[in-house]
Amino acid sequence: MMSVSDKFMKLAGKIASEAHLVAVRDAFVAMMPITMAGSVAVLLNVFLRDIPNNLGMSSFVESMSPVIAVNGNVWFGTIAIMALVFSFALGYNLSLMYKVNPLAGGMVSFGAFIATVPQSLKFASNLEGLSDKAIKILSGAGVAVEPASKGVDLSSWGAISTAYAGATGLFTALIVGFISMKIFAYLMNHKVILRLPDSVPPAVNKAFAAIIPGVVAIYAAAILAQASVMLTGKALSDLISTYIQTPLMGLSQGVGSVILITFLVQLFWFFGIHGHNVLAPVMDGVYLTAQNLNLEHYQAHHQIAKLPYLWTRGSFDAYCQMGGSGVTLALIIAIFIFSKRDEYRAVAKLAWPMGMFNINEPVIFGIPIVLNPIFIIPWLIVPPICATIAYTLTALGVIPPVFIMVPWITPPGLYAYLATGGSWLAGLVSLLNLGVAFLIWLPFILYANRVKENEL
User: Would you say 176 and 108 are in contact if contact means Cβ atoms under 8 Å apart?
Assistant: First the structure.
């Protein structure tokens, strides 16, 4: 009879290998170069503009203005348009899953997403008393200017707002990508294509084969977007944001949700399954979106205190995974100081250099942690406790939320400092959690000293 652990591993394996979830995970991973570049740009401007301004160093900020402007350009070319990039990456990976032309699939997904984006900009301007000359200039440039109760409404057809192209548009890109790729792949796999003679070069043949499926998929997205406007008066992106994205993001911000996700990561790892990969659609799709929305908000307002989301993707790495899942850097320290087992100390000696950079597979599989009854309790409870401490301090305003993407191999303490835009208190909280984890791991290391290896 199959044991409970075997059933759990089988279920987890199915979840981790589900093709659509893998495609979503890989699409987010594919965006890492641009999200990292945009985060670096914002982080540099924190130290070149925001902190100096707070210290009254206006002359320094002025001298750095060319560099600050370049960083702004980098942000605009990365974070500000991440939904556009994601739509292509998702289409590409879904096409690989469906075994159709991935390049064409990426472009079709991109085009379908663009077809759902509102084609005009409308915003209330605070420029009271706009002169007749200014109105004439705007009108001559093709911008419609209409009186509004507060300022004016400016609208121009053919513009794409970063409000839809950035992190806010990720859920729309995800939904439209799934729909358009399902249509595209269905027609491709059922050979509803243009057939050319075999003498035609393969690249041309592939391009022509994707024409009919691509046209149908993009038209389907465009019709869906127009139907949304006609039936509700709102753009499809606004509907998805209001009724799907915002409620889902709200649910993710409760302390219970944070603790549950943190616990599940540990539970999967205990059975030897990569917890982050299994939960990537949630951790990246929801919490990474929250982080990017925080980043967009900071870029617009330069106010850390008013970031919209308390807990983001980087919060897990900053406060709950020092040394890797389970805060195993604390375990390594406890082994060095208190363990009398030679095999543990040997693993710790090999693992600590990697543990400093949050790589802990040598510990997980070397001790081992996987299916080890001695360490199951600290392994499962340490990260949730650390998450609770950091979440509480963030909610109380003691430390700011994480909003900057930092390489996950950044050492503990420094990660939290950089990810919060230079908050030294955040760095101290990360180190505090490391100390708490050490105290929790310690009695189990002492107990392991009394257990013979063959009793495990």
Answer: no
Specify the amino acid at residue 179.
I
pLDDT tens, residue by residue, 347-360: 999 999 999 999 88
CA 60, CA 196: separation in Å to the nearest integer?
Answer: 63
DSSP category for residue 307? -
Q: In sequence order, what DSSP letters do the residues of 238-272 get, joined into one string?
A: HHHIIIIIHHHHHHHTSHHHHHHHHHHHHHHHHTT
Helices 376-395, 255-270: axis angle to 10 degrees equals: 160
Q: Which residues of the chain have pLDDT under 50?
A: 1, 124-129, 138, 141, 148-153, 454, 456
Pick from 109, 100, 91: which is nearest to 188 by CA?
Answer: 100
Which residue type does 217 have?
A
Instruction: Using alpha carbons, list the distances in angstroms from residue 310 to 5, 25, 275, 291, 403.
Output: 34, 23, 22, 9, 9
The dihedral region occupied by 170, where left means phi > 0, alpha psi between -120 and 50, and beta the remainder, is alpha
Closest alpha carbon to 382 in 269, 262, 278: 262
Do the Cβ atoms of 141 and 157 come closer than 8 Å? Answer: no
